[in-house]
Amino acid sequence: MPKILRVTTIPISLNLLLKGQLSYAQKHGFEVITASADGDDISLIKEREGVKHFVIPFTRVISPWQDLVCLWRTIQLIRVEKPEIIHSHTPKAGLIAMLAGKICGVKHRIHTVAGMPLMEASGISKLILTVTEFLTYWSATHVFPNSQNLESWIKSNFTVAHKKLKVIGKGSSNGIDTNYFDTTEALRSKATEFRACNNISENAMVFCFVGRLVRDKGIVELVAAFDSLTVDNTYLVLVGNYEDQREPLTVETKNKIRLNEKIIAVGFQSDIRMYLAASDVFVFPSYREGFPNALLQACAMGLPSIATNINGNNEIIQPGQNGLLIETKNTSQLKESMEELCLNASLRTKLAANARPSIMDYKQENVWQLILQEYQKLM
User: Considering the entire predicted model, what is its pTM?
Assistant: First the structure.
């Protein structure tokens, strides 16, 4: 049975971003083993996906000596396990796994590209990230951008990747489970209870954001836009954690979140469906994305969306059909769009009605089958 090594920097990526995909490959003729840094998600991954997992102490920060240790550990793992295919996700894991695979002579080395920090970097950080991406693509035999626009961007910036690039289907790394992300009566009941517990009236307008609470996700602009809304009876639900060690928000923005009684920050949630069901509009003002799962999930739950006109977002959102697109870092335009959907009920209803049908091409099993076909071709 051919063996595939799937590698991510941290285990939560395996757990959430590739949920179900690993066991699907195992049911269809492949043995899958996984590797990542240590973390609480590992036991769940092993149990749910039925995989053998190896801990390699990857970090998400620039750490040359630690990275050399991880490269050596990955080489040792490959020599012992002898996978026919290595498939990596996330920048640090991609760099180390692809280099290790090339050093060990693994014939098939796949790297999936999702969000790219390089797009917003500057100075020495940009130089380091550029070298990192170059080495990853140089070491890989196949590069799978998870959106059409991301593929175009890589083509424009890295000639080394040209002949290796391929988007799987219409995009996405794992598709979306449209049965799981659906507004059921049980979810509506929980959503009603959530609104009641937070004193949100039935006719209030609730905006929702899901993701890391960091600058690159547009949180500064989102909080500022919400704070300046002229429409009454509005609320903002923020689902996600701060990352103060890597990408801290400004003190001003954090204070606005803390002091504004109509901003409800619930932290990281493994199940976001109730918060989406309790909301009226999804807002996603990110600066950079690959192919955002949160936007797919919001659409599947029937929410109209306001999103920035960037890679990935503009492949999911069709302006005037299932949402609105705005410029990045544009607080005034974000505010105007939020107020428009507050005041224009007919537009909001139209966008909501089109949201779920618009993402049905990204059903999870469709994406899994296409990835499986790529593995089968290699064999």
Answer: 0.83
